[in-house]
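Need the bound structure for S-adenosylmethionine, inputs here:
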Amino acid sequence: MPISSTIDPLPTLMPDYYESDRLLAEYLLFHYGSPAEILPPHPPAGMSDALDFAVRTVSGLAEIPNGRALDLGCAVGRSSYELSRTFTEVVGVDFSRRFIDAAAALRHGPLDYSRHDEATLSTPLQASLPPGVRPERVRFFRGDAMDLPEALSDFDLVHAANLLCRLREPRKLLQRLPSLVRPGGTLLLVTPCTWLDTFTPEENWPPGNTLDWLVSELSGSFLLESTREEPFLIRETARKFQWTSSLLSQWTRC
Ligand SMILES: C[S@@+](CC[C@H](N)C(=O)[O-])C[C@H]1O[C@@H](n2cnc3c(N)ncnc32)[C@H](O)[C@@H]1O
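Answer from helper R.:
Posting the output first, comments after.
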């Protein structure tokens, strides 16, 4: 399937946010780092439960013969590669050129990066694909989740993790979802519901609870099957971590 995308020069209020060396390194560590590389020396009880977020959100999915999956806001690609264990075709899309280039480069071998520790101190690390993934099944392209090419349609699975509340107009993605997922297919929406006016103008926020809003926006096209909380941990420095709980909702296309 040919895919091309024309990208609005300002699809986001923070167009360069995910283009810095610092964010690229944070996400390579978040997606591919080992527990020893991410956690502090004596982690408090429960901290390690928040590791492997990009693996957990796509785990336990039923195998579908010749299944096709779409990973929106894939960042540096870990969930896309994980999906290749189950799906024979996986498309990863992200707006960040640096993230997409890193995701695509990982198929050719380890990527060097520098983990920020404190002040001017850093540690050289390498990100690499885990055993068992099938890179030949995965392709990445830079695109805008609010303006996706028409060629993208009828996927067996669409996964969008921690993307919705980074979009300027999240409704545009919600309105496109029915044509992205084939009837009977699965949608995984994962969101920490951290609505910020630096990414999404307040008039585009849910009017109340995010899950109620999703149920109302997706009604008629998707049936809500289940929800669960998925915690995640992003290491900013040796002693500063973002611990967040994301709401994962699983839907079936009617
Ligand atoms: C908070 S990160 C989440 C990344 C990844 N799914 C994860 O869970 O680690 C948000 C991602 O959405 C991407 N993004 C932001 N706006 C986008 C847009 N309009 N279209 C596609 N991707 C976008 C960013 O580049 C970034 O990779």
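Comments: Residues 11-12, 18, 54, 73-75, 93-96, 99, 144-146, 161-163, 166-167 surround S-adenosylmethionine (CB under 6 Å). The chain has one domain: 17-253.
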